[in-house]
Structure formats: structure tokens, C-alpha cells
Design a protein that fits this description.
7 helices, elongated, WH-like_DNA-bd_sf, Arc Repressor Mutant, subunit A, HTH marR-type domain-containing protein, 10% strand, mainly alpha, 163 residues, WH_DNA-bd_sf
Length: 163
């Protein structure tokens, strides 16, 4: 059976094209860094070394506290995070990344870097650099260039831990 190259009947809009790109990224992550699903990676990559409460993490990841709590439970069961009572409030839980979580993040970052390199090869390094700058400007509302180069992840969130 031959592979069919499917193209949309309508002119592709941005969300459709982004979905196509995300599908490729998900496939590559599943093959090369299977320990985390992209949805789990989305939560884990917001954790600075000192940790965040679930509420702070949910705000950073732009999700509900309940949904974030479900991801935190999954990540805890995988040994990617540790959850403890927050020092400032016995009702709150502070989430910190573990060595296993850092290793999974590093592997995922390598896969994502390889995707960047492949796309830069496909369209040319200068066009890809401009694409990333424009995308960062649109996505981050002008905070773009400095955030795109940020590799550690510890300065990305606007929410910082309290107490």
C-alpha cells in the first residue's frame, strides 16, 4: 500500500498548521523520549529548582488547578516530581522536580533541539531564526527574543513561589 500525502481541502489556517507540526513533534517525542507525554512535559518544564505550589504551577502552565493536580499525580507516580507540604501553608503542596524528571526534560530538550535543527535545515537557518523571533513575539506578547534563548526554564514563569 502506498503512502498518501494528504492535503486539506481548504487553505490551511494557522491552528491547522500548528496541529500538523505538533503531531510531528509528538511522534518524535514518543519514539525518542517516551518517558513523558507532551502534556506532562508541558507541566514539568515550568518547574524551577525551588519548586512551585500546584496553584502556581497551574497558573504558569495556563491550566486549571484540578487539571494540573492530575498531571502532578501522574508525574509523582513516574518519579519525575516530589510533592510535599508547603512551608507557608499546610493545605498547599509544593512540587519539585527530581533527578529523574530533570533527565527526562534533558532528553526531551534534545529531541526538540533536533526538531529545530531539522526545520532550520529545511527552510534555511536565517528564515528559521526570523520565524522563531516572530513566533516568540506573537506568543509571548513582545517578551520574545530573551525568552526564546532561555534554556534553563527557571526564569520563564511570571508566577514565583511564595514563602
Amino acid at each position: 500500500m502506498s503512502e498518501v500525502k494528504r492535503l486539506p481541502a481548504a487553505e490551511p489556517h494557522l491552528p491547522m498548521m500548528m496541529g500538523m507540526v505538533f503531531a510531528r513533534v509528538r511522534e518524535r517525542l514518543a519514539a525518542e523520549a517516551p518517558e513523558l507525554r507532551p502534556s506532562q512535559l508541558r507541566v514539568l518544564e515550568w518547574l524551577p529548582p525551588e519548586g512551585l505550589t500546584i496553584t502556581e504551577l497551574a497558573e504558569c502552565a495556563e491550566m486549571s488547578t484540578q487539571g494540573c493536580g492530575q498531571f502532578v499525580r501522574q508525574l509523582d507516580a513516574l518519579g519525575m516530581v516530589e510533592v510535599a507540604v508547603a512551608a507557608h501553608d499546610a493545605r498547599a503542596r509544593r512540587v519539585r522536580i527530581t533527578d529523574r524528571g530533570r533527565a527526562a526534560l534533558a532528553r526531551s530538550a534534545e529531541v526538540l533541539r533536533a526538531c529545530d535543527e531539522a526545520w532550520a535545515d529545511q527552510v534555511g537557518p536565517e528564515r528559521y531564526r526570523v520565524f522563531r523571533e516572530v513566533l516568540a513575539e506573537v506568543a509571548l506578547g513582545g517578551a520574545g527574543e530573551s525568552a526564546v534563548g532561555e534554556q534553563s526554564g527557571s526564569a520563564r514563569g511570571s508566577v514565583r513561589p511564595s514563602g
